[in-house]
């Protein structure tokens, strides 16, 4: 992993943060992307740079705004002068009844979960080809199994899953593209009713939540697994079997 550089979107907190920390611990330099969590991103970068000088930098952009994508790509490339991997981790998730969606929901949910990853992958494709790089997309087990009250989110993640497979063909043989489909890893930041939590736990064969490290381990594996391409790895404790 030495001399490798990875851009991780939405990596100031939670799953993205854990993945950035693990890749960094293995010798990589990391570019921490954030939107509203600049303080957390700066704190993480400082922590990583204290461990190894000039090994982490921060870029800030709202990836749901199409006009921001090219500038974000250029900023990321300016950080270390190269890019070996893009981890499309940033995601917006919330419930809303069908019939109540509006343009802001479309921008937020589709923009973060499909549109942003697509346009950012396109903007960085030439650099990733030149570096024989990798793209890892954070999908969801609900890309295949709809979740009531989350129609637009599930649609966007389903599109991201298809994008993962399509880019395998578009970017071959220079760039590997894979996805990760987390199950119940962390409860949503906005909270969840006790009854719903109980239903989720009952559906997991391992009878426990996963954690950030489980996703980080999957990212690390897919970054290094040189002959794994076009796969979507479910990290869900077996929940997708139910």
From TrEMBL:
Family affiliation: Belongs to the short-chain dehydrogenases/reductases (SDR) family.
Protein's recorded name: Pteridine reductase
Enzyme class: oxidoreductase
Organism of origin: Pseudobowmanella zhangzhouensis
A GO molecular function held by the record: pteridine reductase activity
Lineage: superkingdom: Bacteria
Gene3D superfamilies the record matches: NAD(P)-binding Rossmann-like Domain
Entry EC number(s): 1.5.1.33
UniProt xrefs under Pfam families: adh_short_C2
Keyword Repeat recorded: no
């Amino acid at each position: 992993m030495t001399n490798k550089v990875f851009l991780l979107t939405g990596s100031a907190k939670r799953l993205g943060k854990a993945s950035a920390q693990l890749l960094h611990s293995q010798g990589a330099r990391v570019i921490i992307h954030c939107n509203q969590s600049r303080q957390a991103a700066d704190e993480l970068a400082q922590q990583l740079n204290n461990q190894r000088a000039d090994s982490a930098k921060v870029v800030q952009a709202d990836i749901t705004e199409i006009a921001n994508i090219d500038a974000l790509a250029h900023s990321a490339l300016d950080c270390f002068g190269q890019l070996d991997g893009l981890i499309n981790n940033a995601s917006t998730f919330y419930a809303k009844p069908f019939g109540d969606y509006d343009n802001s929901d479309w921008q937020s949910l589709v923009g973060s979960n499909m549109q942003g990853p697509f346009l950012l992958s396109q903007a960085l494709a030439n650099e990733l080809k030149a570096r024989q790089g990798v793209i890892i997309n954070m999908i969801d087990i609900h890309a295949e199994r709809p979740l009531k009250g989350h129609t637009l989110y599930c649609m966007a993640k389903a599109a991201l899953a298809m994008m993962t497979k399509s880019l395998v063909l578009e970017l071959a043989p220079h760039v590997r593209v894979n996805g990760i489909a987390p199950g119940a890893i962390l409860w949503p930041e906005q909270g969840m009713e006790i009854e719903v939590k109980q239903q989720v736990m009952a559906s997991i064969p391992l009878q426990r939540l996963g954690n950030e490290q489980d996703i980080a381990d999957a990212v690390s594996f897919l970054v290094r697994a040189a002959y794994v391409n076009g796969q979507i790895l479910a990290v869900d404790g077996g929940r997708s079997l139910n």
